[in-house]
Amino acid sequence: MPSRRDTIADDLRDRIATGRLNPGDRLPSEAHLAAQYMVSTPTLRNALAVLQAEGLVEKVHGKGNFVRRPVRRITYLGGARTPDTPVVDLAPLSVTARTTKVRARGHLAALLKMPTGSPLTEILCLGHEGERPHSLARIYVPCDLAPAACESLPYEAVVTRLMELRPPLAEVREEISVRLPTSEEASTLRISSALAVLAITRQAADTAGRVVEAALLVLPGDRADAVFTTHHMLDERPAEA
Amino acid sequence: MPSRRDTIADDLRDRIATGRLNPGDRLPSEAHLAAQYMVSTPTLRNALAVLQAEGLVEKVHGKGNFVRRPVRRITYLGGARTPDTPVVDLAPLSVTARTTKVRARGHLAALLKMPTGSPLTEILCLGHEGERPHSLARIYVPCDLAPAACESLPYEAVVTRLMELRPPLAEVREEISVRLPTSEEASTLRISSALAVLAITRQAADTAGRVVEAALLVLPGDRADAVFTTHHMLDERPAEA
DNA sequence: GAGTGGTCTAGACCACGAG
DNA sequence: TCGTGGTCTAGACCACTCA
């Protein structure tokens, strides 16, 4: 027996799929919809929450519920990439970076295989697409591998300098998990705190086994994919794209 | 201003973290807790939903809310793995498989690069840890690469036969996304339909570029990680673990 | 049958956005 | 100021589990 919430969500989803509701359209108010479907407002809101989690509907406080424009999905390219590929594929997007010095503690120290309290450079990156933030990255590198006085450099310059300072990488480990955003992440990314995010922990080591970078990436779950392509090493080694 | 829901969730989370509530413990009933915190039952249930999404609390209909035993997280090993590594690391776990013949359609046909209607063998795998299901995999292979009459074979035998029939792989592409489970997936995995899952689409091709396997994996977001390790190809090629 | 969670109701009050 | 969504209330009724 499908719940009323799901019945309503299915109906609205169908309305969007068949073009009766178009991207950018404002939905009738929640009170209106509740009356149409003859349910209480909490029930209707639950139905909208389903669609919101699917990325079909966007709620804007004080304005209404809107059919989301089909956003290009963010693609995180993991693994087999050339060393100068940016951490997230931000091709036509803008990234703002802020660099600060912090000290390793807890999980972060373990990730970098450095003792607690070790000085680190944190590069906080926020990817934008138009007005809207859409990816958050915290990159940590040992201070000796960080560009000096780079607080004011633009993102591209920081990345370029990082690559120059860094020894060649031997191994990259990426761990992907799903979780709810912290409230800070939710407000930074302007997503609902109920929308799960893709959390990627990236650890890059040089040939000596030294961890030269740890990165914590947060991508909104409704529009992020992570893609890994592995070329198996056979007799012939395929060229990497 | 933190909401009451978050205040309550924070308090319960703290009770768990500090050991005042221990794994396996049953929480007081929702009505009881609502009275303690002086909130209505929906508000209290929202607070529990937060903890449930974090994997700290498990709701069991008709029995109560329980502090979750720290479950071993499921680790999906992607990318750089030897060909005979199972799709999901199910080491001490049991897997049941069911094999049926289906026809490629829509997304699946595109994934396999086969025309719509092509015959496929579907291997439906359900990973168990004890009584509890914890991973769902749908593996599709062209019929000529599927073991004949394998409907009744155990999982391990099916996988072994698959590997024997399959040409060496050249490229594996894995796409990871976050979404809510379908109602079928939620009931099969016995998770709440509000708990996001890690959805992994795996596409394996042989040296000729033919797709020899497409797999759709669904892992519960509260206890699943996907790990990718890339050994960069430098002068010396590191041995694969 | 007693107790539990699951769903839903019909409101109330507050916070936000736009005119 | 008005309409919107955000949060919350104090119940009701149903479904499930277990004794």
UniProtKB/TrEMBL annotation, chains A, B:
InterPro entries: Bact_HTH_transcr_reg, Chorismate_lyase_/UTRA_dom_sf, Tscrpt_reg_HTH_GntR, UTRA, WH-like_DNA-bd_sf, WH_DNA-bd_sf. Keywords: DNA-binding, Transcription, Transcription regulation. One of its GO terms (biological process) is negative regulation of DNA-templated transcription. One of its GO terms (molecular function) is DNA binding. Residues 2-70 form the HTH gntR-type domain. PROSITE patterns: HTH_GNTR. The keyword Transmembrane does not apply. Gene3D superfamilies: Chorismate lyase-like, Winged helix-like DNA-binding domain superfamily/Winged helix DNA-binding domain. This is GntR family transcriptional regulator. It comes from Streptomyces capillispiralis.
